[in-house]
Amino acid sequence: MTPKLPSRHLPPRRLLAVAAALALFGGPVEAQSAPDQTQEPSQQTPQTVTVKEKPLPNCPLGAFRCSPRPVNFSMCRPNAMLDFYDPTMSKDSSVRDTSNTYVVAERVDSSNQSVYHLEGNVKVDRADQRIQSDVTDYNDDTTDFDARGNVRYQEVGQLVSSDHMRGNQDASTAIADNVSYQMLTNRGNGVATQGQMLDDQRSRYLQATYSTCDVGHHVWEIHAKDIRMDKETGEGVAHDAVMYFGGVPIFYAPTFTFPINDERKSGFLTPTVGNTSRGGFEVSAPYYLNLAPNYDATLDPRIYTDRGVMMAGEFRYVVPGSTGQMNFEFLPNDHGETDPGSLNDTQGTNRYLFKLNDNTHLYGPWSLTTSINRASDSGYLRDFGNDLYTASIGTLTSSTYVVGGGMWGKTYWNAQFGADYYQNVDPDLPDTVVQYKRWPRAHFQVTTPFNNWLEAGADAEAVAFRKDNVVEGNRLDLYPYIGADFQGAAWFVKPKVAYRYTGYELIGNYQQYGYSGMLSQGQSSPFNTSSPSRSLPVVSVDSGLIFDRSTSLFGTPYTQTLEPRLYYLYVPYRNQNNIPLFDTNLMSFDTWQLFTPNTYSGADRQINANNLSAMLTTRLLDDNGVERLSASFGQIRYFTQQEVQVPNSNTTVPVPTNWSGSDYAVDFTTQLNDDWRVTSQYQWNPNTDLTDLGAITVQKRVGNGGIFNFSYRYRRTPGSTLPLLEQYDASLVYPFNDRWKLLTHWTYSVLDHKTIEALAGVEYDSCCVALRLVGRRYVNTYDYTTAVGASNTAIMFEIEFKGMGQFTGQSENALRNGILGYQ
Asked: Is residue 523 packed enough to be buried (19+ CB in 10 Å), middle (13-18) or exposed (0-12)?
């Protein structure tokens, strides 16, 4: 049995002095002597501990865009320094000042009245702190202590081993020789010739290293003349520092900062190296600035060898009453060549992109929301975007609104007042294609429930539409209604009666654009030529039943539902050919369109209707209520001619249709287990005997963190027998093992007989470093006269040093946009 030194053999001052060894790399030490009936600390032999991280969550199947996975250290080996780590010790460092101190040793010599000499497996414990050594001396007069031989120190935040440790308890200082250290909060570890405790929160290491890799297996590490750790700020600072990767020096900095916990800190983020056919060789080295707890910034200087030097940046803030984010990119004197036939000559010009999003509380229920997005020219996103998603954006929208909402008595209301501005960023189209500015716009909604089944409300909008060289005007749209909601456990009936008035005030020389007050039949318009209007009632009844039963499929019990639904809509015909199309388009038909009062977006057209929509839906629900299968089939039956149409490219006067029914619409979704998901849509037009739309998407999880996607999309051009779109799309994230992944994405256009986008890459993930190499070729511009697209080629290489800061690279954004379910 190991002899122990009872705490009563030393006076309180002397016990406190021996415990001063705990001060190294820790807090100020003040301890109380234990009473005579001392409770001994656990004598359990420390064992090597392997910390198992929780499995990373998978992105739900069917999610359009998945969030990045958190930094993962699950592939790291058990830390070699954990051979003296005791997981039974307290994890609460706040009770050090009020905790007892326990001392265990094989021998004690107190012949010198000033110096106590402890030998043999010396152990001193207090709260979360422990120091162990072969020999410890303590001077009662000066409070100096000296621990020698196999010195090991543990606290809640770190582990330290040393050959020799000496210090002063009163000054809370200490020096240790030949140090190995391990941060327990972020896996940071290293060695040093000397470690110095400057106070209870700050320490210094001389001729030191730092890495988050496995101890003894540093794939990368920082070598520095001087490394200082500040637990209060969560920051490490290395002076005269060189970063090594695979034993090769790759980066030098006179001063280099890095995080020692999960708090934000200033420092360089992961650099990016790549090459594109439009920008040339690209190097990006972002630097993060943790300016204050409520705002920060990132500066991102970039070099494009074919275009010049760009400065990009981001600023985020949270101040009383306001939150927001500002992004900018600026490249002076672009020396890249302008594409032949481009509508904008950008060579030699200053080019920029600016984005601002802000939400500011004004007063009571009112707030100001601002979203500004501006580019220097229409070709900016094509030249500096790094994926098909960015390059395909055709319009940038800017808006500013004062918004409010709440409850007044029993009335719910919301309102917004502001303006919308649009910028064309398609370099192959003139600015005339951009939609009208809504300058300004006001929108108001109100709902008043009379009881639990009857309510009344209104939707009102006033807009001023502005655009050069076309008809301009102001529009007022009023839509009051009264509706009821009768329902039971397995049925519902929802009648609704509304009245819609839309009035216009055309301004400028509107006559030159064909608005002369004449109807298509040649009769004089009943409206004033500058003030057309439209008013009509809208009556609807929505009803449905819900049946359910217990069933089983492949031996698994389910609840199956059968849900028939009928929707009747009546809207009388009003001739609207003398009304401009400011913001109105025919919406794509789908099952949602079966139950809406208008198939047009915006208020410039309101359909006439005497229709009955019918849809039958069935679902399979598992025992947890999760929908595992859903299938719907529906159609609209027309009892009158569909007279409200919009002109197409071949006609100036819209032609009514006299179809007896709409497309048959079928939706099908199944996810019978957590690894497979299939979704499909099909629409067949019985009037033309043609398929209007067909789409299917198959998604399957592959191994640990992998995903496979395949989809086919077909859509026919409205009013034509020719297809508008037909594409195949396939993508794969294939994990060969827990470290290597293959990344691919391919989109092929049947109509163009060419690949629209192709991507291939590899991803390597290890304990402390992740690598990603991605090559992409994608169509980023399209000649509408020759139907030929120009392609861009990009190669991106990124490296992430785990534990050195948050990382979201450019290639990761392209992968998350292009591969459904990528994390």
From this structure: exposed
Strand 676-685 to 690-702 pairing: antiparallel
SS3 assignment, position 394 = coil
Residue-level length of the chain: 823
Rounded to two decimals, what is the model's pTM?
0.77
Split at pLDDT 50, 70, 90, the class of 651 is low
Do 207 and 253 lie in one domain? The reply is: yes
Structure confidence by residue, pLDDT tens digits, 693-724: 999 999 999 988 889 999 999 999 887 888 98
The answer to whether the peptide bond before residue 572 is cis (omega within 30 degrees of 0) is no
CA–CA gap between residue 416 and residue 810 (Å, rounded): 36
The range of the structural domain enclosing residue 90 comes to 1-46+85-173
| Average of per-residue pLDDT across 666-682 | 93
Question: Does a structural domain hold residue 435?
Answer: no
Asked if 568 and 540 count as a contact pair (C-beta separation under 8 A), the reply is yes
Question: Whole-angstrom Cα distance, residue 497 to residue 583?
Answer: 25
Decide if 168 is inside a domain: yes
Q: Which amino acid is at 324?
A: G
- Work out the burial of residue 232: count CB atoms within 10 Å of its CB; fewer than 13 is exposed, 13-18 middle, 19 or more buried: exposed
- Indicate whether 375 belongs to any domain: no
Give the Cα separation of 89 and 552 in Å (integer): 52
**Residue 216: other Cβ atoms inside 10 A:** 11
**Token couple for 660:** 């007896």
Residue 169 and residue 194 in one domain: no
Question: Across residues 30-47, what is the average pLDDT?
Answer: 33
Residue 276: partners with Cβ closer than 8 Å, 6 or more residues away: 282, 386, 792, 793, 794, 795
The H or E element spanning position 516 is: none
> What is the reported pLDDT for 809?
56
pLDDT band at 172 (very low <50, low <70, confident <90, very high): low
For residues 647-674, average pLDDT = 83
Distance CA 373, CA 393 (A): 12
Residue 432 to residue 217: CA distance in whole angstroms? 62
26 and 134 co-located in one domain: yes
Distances (CA, A) of 820 to 404, 730, 731, 775: 36, 10, 8, 18
Residue 323 included in any domain: no
Average pLDDT over residues 415-444: 92
- Determine how β-strand 723-735 pairs with β-strand 706-716: antiparallel
Within this chain, do residues 10 and 148 fall inside the same structural domain, yes or no? yes
Tokens of 68: 């990045």
Residue recorded with tokens 């409850």: 407
- Name the token pair of 11: 């006076």
Q: What six digits make up the tokens of 548?
A: 């359910």
Q: Please check whether residues 155 and 252 belong to one and the same domain.
A: no
d(CA 537, CA 606): 11
Backbone angles phi, psi at 815, to 5 degrees: -70, -40
User: Which of residues 124, 145, 173 is at a domain's end?
Assistant: 173
Q: Specify the residue for token string 């509706």.
A: 483
What DSSP character marks residue 5? -
- Neighbour tally for 298: CB within 10 Å: 15
pLDDT band at 22 (very low <50, low <70, confident <90, very high): very low
| Helix (H), strand (E) at residue 715 | strand 706-716
Q: Average pLDDT for residues 791-798, to the nearest whole number?
A: 78
Query: How many folded domains does the chain comprise?
Result: 2
Identity of the highest mean pLDDT range in 61-75, 331-345, 468-482, 574-588: 468-482
- On whether the CB atoms of residues 14 and 113 are closer than 8 A, the answer is no
Is 34 found in the same domain as 111? Answer: yes
For residue 135, the domain's CATH number is: 2.60.450
Single residue among 241, 262, 283 that ends a domain in this structure:
262
Residues 195 and 163 in one domain: no
147 and 217 belong to one structural domain = no
Q: Is the pLDDT of residue 234 over 90?
A: no
Q: pLDDT tens for residues 369-412?
A: 999 999 998 888 888 875 555 656 789 999 999 999 999 888 99
Residue of 369, 323, 372 whose CA lies nearest to 352 = 372
Average confidence score pLDDT of the chain: 82
